[in-house]
């Protein structure tokens, strides 16, 4: 089939997997392009696609998902600000901080980073930010620095008052970003699956790579993760999207244990670590944890806390069980139950910012099976993102009720308690979460 050939081209050249973005989306894009040329045969279109780089770029523009907004997953920026004001100056006196945003889409992410660093008190010459995307349309929009209401989500928009000017008499109610922020970001066009991407650049201290891996084929994911490993400085920090942690894996990265912050650092492998890594088989402990839990058989949500037997024998034994999940690969699971398929869609919608749709799908699952742990947890995340903390609390509580070792739900509950001004309860929840981590770590060591 010609469409399958075009899908393979897309996957091989830019990594986007047809099963993640949808074959129907690809079919519609092809159809749109063919209509422009008045073509009625798809093989004629394939011909022009193979011959013309320009046509290839046009098609790609219809396939990419440039969904983004300012301060998406705000906790990551709070964490960044904290790191910049506390740890960075101690470790890197007088060194310029290098930050990379990949992919940057229409610029909201790198500009949020710039605003965070400015607010944290960094001087203009103390940092710089590179931002890469494959879409030239998205990059042009980013450089222009004019943003509509869809770029500003959530209730706390004080950053907008400080850094933007409203466009005068604009029916679309857009805002222009101040030049002082705009000039802090260098935008570059690039394909992140290319092995030589930014090959001549020095390593970056902070990399944001969020909401790309979920759309990629297994092979493309590996390439991007490999590239990130090369581009990230030795003690650098990588931020990923909330469902992408298992896609990055545990073998090369150590995850930072901070609720709602999906970040990690590169693992320091000593010669001793390397040789013991090779010796290690999948620890026996995992079998025990998985078989003793009544959890849905194949949930794959990055943060849903479902313990599944990992297939990565190199996985570090120091990691708690909630981190030991198999890659999230959206496309590589065909034997999903109906509920699991719905949850997969719900996660994708949540990640794309369509929280209403995600919530509707989650509810569908919960109506079928109110004990489904990932559905309860994702509902908690969605409610939290929609600033409905009471509801979020209810769902996180239910998650913990169903899975008392759900470290992440405990972390979110602690976070809610802190915000509500109940530090005592927050501390208790954090201690409980810490005990889980320690207990699981101890079990591993005992059985080694
Ligand atoms: C959902 S946006 C993510 C934006 C931002 N990181 C965020 O989380 O809000 C995904 C972006 O990935 C870009 N993209 C897709 N494939 C790419 C590739 N192979 N190389 C570079 N960018 C790519 C798309 O153009 C799109 O702008």
Structure overview:
The chain is α/β, with parallel strands linked by helices. The chain has three domains: 2-63; 74-266, Vaccinia Virus protein VP39 (Rossmann fold), CATH 3.40.50.150; 283-448, Alpha Horseshoe (Serine Threonine Protein Phosphatase 5, Tetratricopeptide repeat). Helices cover 52% and strands 10% of the residues. The strands form two sheets. It has a seven-stranded mixed β-sheet. Strands 3-5-4 form a three-stranded antiparallel β-sheet. β7, α11 (218-231) and β8 (232-240) form a beta-alpha-beta unit. α15 packs antiparallel against α16 and α17 runs antiparallel to α18. Residues 271-333 and 442-448 have low confidence and may be disordered. It binds S-adenosylmethionine (SAM). Residues 14-16, 64-68, 72, 103, 105, 109, 133-135, 138, 191-193, 210-212, 241 line the site of S-adenosylmethionine.
**Structural class from helices and strands?**
alpha/beta
Tell me roughly what share of residues is in helical segments: 40-55%
Which small compounds were modeled alongside the protein? S-adenosylmethionine
Number of helices: 20
- Low-confidence runs (pLDDT<50, min 5 residues)? 271-333, 442-448
Task: Please compute the radius of gyration using only Cα atoms.
Answer: 22 Å
Distance between the termini: 51 Å
Query: Which geometry do the CA atoms define?
Result: globular
Strand order of the largest sheet: 6-2-1-7-8-10-9
Q: Total number of β-strand segments?
A: 10
**Average pLDDT value?**
82
Beta-strand fraction estimate: 5-15%
CATH class of the largest domain: Alpha Beta
